[in-house]
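User: Quick sanity check before I run a bigger batch. Here is a single chain. Can you write out its predicted 3D structure?
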Amino acid sequence: MDGIIPGEIGKIELTFSKKNYWFGILIELQERSLKRAKPVCTVFKKCGGCSIQHIKSKYHMNLKSKMVMDAFTRIGHLSNLPEPYIHIPHEYLSYRNKTIIPVKRDNSNILSMGYFERNSHQIVNFDSCPILNRNITSSLPYIRRLLSLNYIPINDDSNHIKGLKHIGIRTSTFSNEIMIIFISNIDISLDLNKLANKLLVDIKNISGIINNIQPQNTNTIFGNTSNIVYGRKFIIEKFINIFIQLGVTSFFQVNLTEAEKAVNSIINNVSELDSRITILDLYCGIGTISLPLAKLGYKVIGIENNSESVYYANKNKVINNILNIEFILDDVNLLLEKYLHKKNYLILDPPRKGLTNLLINIILDKKPQNIAYLSCNPSTLARDLSLLKVGDTYSITSIETFDFFPQTMHVEVLVFLKLTKF
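Assistant: Done. Predicted structure follows.
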């Protein structure tokens, strides 16, 4: 229910139901909670980027942790669970190091640039966003002005015009550099060449201006082709104790400080075990979990199916002179049976959809003694924990929650499992 806080009283219009619950719209707020706050964003009520700016920040993580534990009980049917350790975020604003912003131009040639309105594909225009890194926010007015004053083809499905669809911006908290990615369904590199010098004058510390081409009409935003308009295709970041290069499409957590907390929790858990263990890191990405562990002396194998991520993982391995690690480009479902052994420490960091049944069956067959499962989706995490026979084959030794995404109801959960039935 958008717009109303637990404990408040309001007039609600019920819209539709799903099995055991209803969706509705707040018509009138009749009794306000002391937890209610004034949103810091002027377009909060329309924009789909944030959902809980109207709740005081100090209450966010309790709300999210309750949602996690409810999912464990309701979906996973789990019981006798340890109380979650709640990590309070360092920052509630200006934390996002990456954004992707849709762009449109109407029949009157007026440019729209911003996130989609809730439950629609209507763009909510803005020139600043309070949750974005200040480097990103400060660049938005210049990008808007250049696109408004200079002709760049912008995609328009209704008129069968191909061109720019999204603007991606990624910045580094370590080097302060910024990479601007113009995502289109045709090559617009020549058009962007004309704007590059103006962008370089207006926006400081640009490491690269890129045209990423996604010709397919799908929900996948990035394509496989990235043409350099200026500079290079990566930025340099520091994560925990390693230097990393991040490419155009490389997955990297948008909240570096909170991601470091989660990885440090895994490091602390691993450090309690035999230093001779081999760590298997599934969905390893560019190595943000694998590399810090390998640097401490553990033998690590990372498996990832994104070719750019594995390319940069291997580059980051060389940059940091870490030899006791291997990155494999392949589907984890196909390779796990070959590499997983009982004495392995298994790290799972899957996408939102969670683990496949095949993967879960292999884990139950091989029975690794220790598992760290990092998830951005409490629902699929609860389902997977149930399928992993928590309470029988495995026990949960600890649950930790992290606010990777302040001002939204998204939450990151880290669960440590230990084998109890050999």
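The mean pLDDT is 94.

User: Great, the batch can go ahead then.
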